[in-house]
Design goal:
By secondary structure, this protein is mostly beta strands. The protein has strands at residues 10-18, 21-28. A hairpin with a 2-residue loop joins strand 1 (10-18) and strand 2.
Length: 54
Amino acid sequence: MFDKTVVLVASVTGLTLHRGGLAIFGEPLTDHPLIGKPDPLHTPNPLANGRHQG
């Protein structure tokens, strides 16, 4: 169940189609300050993306 808490933040370096789906390439940012905080995008989806503002 998605409780709207950020569990991973990553820097996306690329996207590609793979076996009919989308593959996302990037690096996890394990010390990002949003990890463990409420979803700042207020999205109903368990997987979301947002643009870094800063």
